[in-house]
Design a protein that fits this description.
Strand order of the largest sheet: 3-4-2-1-5-6-7-8
CATH superfamily of the largest domain: Glycogen Phosphorylase B
Number of strands: 14
CATH class of the largest domain: Alpha Beta
Radius of gyration: 22 Å
Structural class: alpha/beta
Low-confidence stretches: none
CATH topology of the largest domain: Rossmann fold
Strand content: 15-25%
Mean pLDDT: 91
Largest sheet: 8 strands, mixed
Distance between the termini: 24 Å
CATH architecture of the largest domain: 3-Layer(aba) Sandwich
Oligomer: single chain
Number of domains: 2
Shape: elongated
Order of helices and strands: EHEEEHEHEHHEHEEHEHEHEHEEHHH
Length: about 375
């Protein structure tokens, strides 16, 4: 794509690189910026989620050159004002204004207020990033559903275009914001290398599982532990729950639950850096995450790319996995997960190799990315006046 055909895209997001505590939404956005050849201008905070320490190596309150197609403006929290936001929104000559959240006060609602006043909502692309999923809405449900009801009644998002990352998210947007909403569908992208990682030998009666997700209620970590307890596993079993641990009360609850299970090893090693994930996965037999809802699930995709069979809930886009011998997507029912945990434990090397092959076949398709890149490019193909 030539520089003359590239569009100027302004992205507003609460957290971005080098931050990582917000998890998937940062990775989804970073992958899009890396793989789609437009000129991106990102405005964000100068701190990570739940941190007051500014990132090192950046300059606050000015454009930082990230690469030849991306610049980032890091705001100090006290400087995020309507005037500052207005200056950037109206003076940058942007083709599209892309918002990476539905509920953000500073990086969605504030700029939307300015853009409605300036009659510029036709330039907005808004990605809910899974925030309309049942699992996400179950956290602080009254507040979120009241907000959605008021926003729809007041027409806060009238005239915008929505970015859905799946057909199911398209239906969620229609359900909450009306069937006439302008919606474009483009899946999340992966930057993971398309290569199988060597795994440990699988012997019947031995099993190592890895989980990579925030240690938080919506990720189903306590349920994951309870399902293991209910399975009554007998053998050499190790389960490591990697993930940011910003919810101390929930972490303590999970550790207490894990401590009550005898005969197997359950650990909480902390955050796993993205660059280390493939190396980590080489030490495990299965990926395990009975999440309450994922818009994409980057770690699930990476497990499949690494040829790691996955044991997950049916609340993600990764469905019908058993049909292709790539894993299992199960309802959040203890008996279902307990049954499959016992099955996985008893698998021998030859049978396990079939599941690894199936996971790797799906993983190769994910890693190629070509159709997904085209769909993401298509998000910005039209002029903002097109509907």
């Amino acid at each position: 794509m030539t520089s003359s055909s590239r569009k100027r895209i302004l992205i507003l997001t609460d957290w971005y690189l080098p931050g990582f505590m917000a998890g998937g939404p940062i990775r989804s956005l970073a992958n899009m910026v890396e793989l789609i050849e437009h000129d991106f201008f990102i405005i964000t905070r100068n701190t990570d989620l739940n941190s007051s320490v500014p990132y090192s190596g950046i300059e606050t309150g000015k454009w930082n050159r990230f690469n030849d197609r991306c610049q980032i403006w890091y705001f100090e929290e006290k400087d995020i004002s309507e005037e500052a936001m207005r200056n950037i929104l109206l003076n940058g000559h942007f083709d599209w204004i892309y918002m990476n959240s539905l509920f953000s006060k500073k990086f969605t609602l504030l700029p939307m207020k300015i853009l409605r006043r300036e009659k510029m909502t036709h330039r907005v692309l808004l990605a809910p990033r899974g925030m309309l999923k049942e699992g996400a809405l179950s956290v602080k449900p009254l507040k979120k559903k009241l907000f959605i009801s008021m926003a729809r009644m007041l027409g806060c998002f009238n005239g915008i275009t929505w970015h859905a990352t799946s057909e199911s998210e398209r239906e969620e947007i229609k359900r909450y914001f009306g069937s006439s909403s302008a919606i474009r569908v483009a899946p999340n992208l992966s930057l993971a290398p398309g290569q199988t990682v060597a795994g440990p030998e699988k012997i019947s009666g031995e099993m190592k599982l890895i989980s990579i997700a925030r240690i938080s209620p919506e990720k189903g970590i306590s349920e994951a532990i309870a399902y293991v307890r209910d399975a009554g596993l007998k053998g050499n079993v190790v389960i490591d729950f990697y993930g940011t641990q910003q919810n101390k009360d929930y972490l303590d609850e999970c550790k207490k639950l894990a401590a009550g299970i005898n005969g197997i090893t359950l650990r909480f090693p902390g955050h796993a850096d993205a660059k280390d994930i493939f190396g980590l996965m080489s030490g495990y037999h299965f990926f395990y995450l009975p999440t309450k809802g994922e818009n994409y699930g980057h770690a699930i995709a990476e497990a499949l790319i690494a040829s790691l069979p996955v044991l997950i809930s049916d609340k993600t886009p990764w469905r019908n996995l058993e049909e292709v011998k790539a894993g299992w997507d199960l309802p959040l029912v203890s008996e279902e997960f307990a049954k499959m945990l016992r099955y996985c434990l008893l698998l021998g090397g030859d049978e396990y190799a079939i599941w690894r092959k199936g996971a790797g076949t799906i993983g190769k398709k994910i890693a190629q990315n070509a159709p997904s890149i085209e769909m993401n490019r298509h998000l910005f193909d039209f002029s903002p006046e097109y509907q």
